[in-house]
Design brief:
The chain is an alpha/beta fold. The chain contains 13 helices and 13 strands. The strands form two sheets. A seven-stranded mixed beta sheet has the order 8-9-10-7-11-12-13. The chain has a six-stranded parallel beta sheet with strand order 3-2-1-4-5-6, sandwiched between helices. Strand 5, helix 5 and strand 6 form a beta-alpha-beta unit. The longest helix has 20 residues.
Length: 363
């Protein structure tokens, strides 16, 4: 029998207990969590006790020396992602890191230099790609089954009140990296980009309309893709009726996804074009298997990739795509001009900070 993958949790907050630890437990004998690390040792010990984890630490380097996990799961606030990921990679551990990956493209590229061929690698949490509906639609786009994508809609309309932003690191460029574009809509935008392929231009606007924060609380964008498709995007934390909505119109059908924080096949709608009015969703390509989008769904192939020394999905260039897009979106909003991928270079201030300002660079 293959030994279980040895794992450690870094950051003992709500995302660890609400999403990551249940996802790990769902893998059964494939995994074993051996340690929890948090700056608050009492909190780490409490999580360890609740989940029957043998060790708790408040020192990451000590844990890496003593436990030497195969895979570390980084669940800290965004400002701490870079240092934690680098420490784990340098210790030989693979990493699965919560979104947003880091605060800037500069940090992302810095981390990439600590990876090695065959591993260790770092993958980022973009679980919406891994449900059966998204997998099926991506294959149909690749094969041209529904025709070339034409029109897209990508909305993340959520609600976060003033109390939400009382947590010190939220709503600040230097610690969260951005507003709902960076911290909330990133999941839906990553899914749209993973489906639609390379983008060629973004025109955007942002505003801080209602929350007392440094970052935006709403953004809007028009995006062009290499295929010729156009997509409208909205990211908001001001929307009382919350929804996450994705729509792509093809010559042969409209495919829609309506959910909030996760989906299964029941959240998808496959509508045939008039000339195919009698076609069922199955005839259009709706999947028969029903895998929900979840941390567990992403973790399964990540564990397989670790065992085989393969670069996982949502890693390397595949993980970088959405971060580069967000940098371009913020650059367009700040300048009032359209931005193309080739403009976000090391010489561009938005490469170093999503605000484009030097004082917001995480040193």
């Amino acid at each position: 029998m293959t030994d279980p993958v040895s794992m450690a949790i870094i950051g003992a907050g709500s995302i660890a207990e609400g999403s990551h630890l249940p996802a790990i437990r769902a893998q059964g004998t494939e995994t074993r969590v051996r340690a929890v690390v948090d700056v608050d040792l009492d909190r780490a010990r409490a999580v360890a006790e609740r989940w029957q984890i043998p060790a708790a630490y408040d020192d990451l380097d000590q844990m890496l020396r003593e436990v030497a996990p195969d895979l570390a799961v980084v669940c800290t606030p965004p400002v701490a992602h870079r240092d934690a990921v680098v420490a784990c990679l340098d210790a030989g551990a693979w990493v699965w890191c919560e979104k947003p990956p880091v605060l800037s493209l500069a940090e992302y590229d810095e981390i990439s230099a600590h990876e090695a061929v065959g591993g260790p690698y770092v993958s980022y949490v973009f679980q919406h790609r891994f449900g059966s509906g998204a997998r099926a639609l991506r294959e149909h786009i690749r094969s041209g089954r529904l025709g070339t994508p034409l029109v897209g809609v990508c909305h993340t309309l959520w609600y976060r009140d003033d109390a939400y932003y009382q947590v010190p690191w939220r709503g600040r460029w230097s610690t969260e990296g951005g507003g709902p574009t960076m911290g909330h809509g990133i999941h839906q935008m990553d899914l749209m980009l993973a489906l639609m392929g390379e983008w060629t231009e973004v025109r955007a606007a942002t505003g801080t309309l209602a929350r007392d924060i440094e970052t935006e609380d709403v953004s809007m964008a028009i995006v062009r893709f290499a295929s010729g498709a156009m997509t409208a995007m909205v990211n908001s934390v001001l929307s009382p009726r919350e929804t996450s909505y994705l729509r792509i119109d093809f010559p042969e059908a409209t495919v829609e996804l309506s959910h909030l924080y996760g989906y299964d096949n029941s959240n998808w709608r496959w509508t045939p074009s008039p000339h195919r009015a009698d076609d069922t969703p199955a005839a259009l390509g709706a999947p028969e298997d029903n895998d929900a989008s979840s941390h567990a769904a992403q973790l399964r192939p990540l564990l397989a990739d670790l065992r085989h020394g393969r670069r996982p999905a949502a890693s390397g260039d595949d993980g970088r795509r959405v971060l580069a897009f967000i940098a371009a979106l913020y650059a367009s909003a700040a300048t009032g001009e359209p931005v193309t991928p080739d403009q976000i270079t090391r010489e561009n201030p938005f490469y170093h900070s999503m605000s484009g300002r030097e004082e917001n660079v995480h040193a």
